[in-house]
Design goal:
Elements lengths: L1 H16 L4 H25 L11 E8 L6 E6 L6 E5 L5
Antiparallel strand pairs: 1-2, 2-3
Helix pairs in contact: 1-2
């Protein structure tokens, strides 16, 4: 998605050089900026970093297979902060 946003911005720059219709250029610039910014914001906002050094992390007993990697995952919970984290399960547990 970021590549598509950057591609729109590059295309807009090329059209500016060729002095093409300003409305199209503005549309491409806005679409490229919005798309690139939205993806950057989504990655920052919805993938918060977990600080495992803070608090008492506990296993919840929840296990699942991560569809992206196919690995067995376990859920950890920090009662002090309410955070959850997902770690690869060890076979000895």
């Amino acid at each position: 998605m970021i590549a598509l946003g950057v591609l729109l911005l590059v295309l807009a720059a090329c059209l500016i050089v060729k002095k093409v219709f300003l409305g199209l250029v503005l549309y491409l610039v806005l679409a490229g900026l919005v798309l690139t910014a939205a993806v950057a914001f989504e990655r920052w906002r919805y993938r918060p970093r977990v600080d495992r050094a803070r608090g008492q992390w506990q296993l919840t007993g929840e296990r699942f297979v991560d569809p992206a990697t196919g690995k067995l995952m376990e859920v950890l919970y920090n009662p002090e902060t309410g955070e959850r984290d997902y770690v690869e399960a060890h076979q000895d547990r």
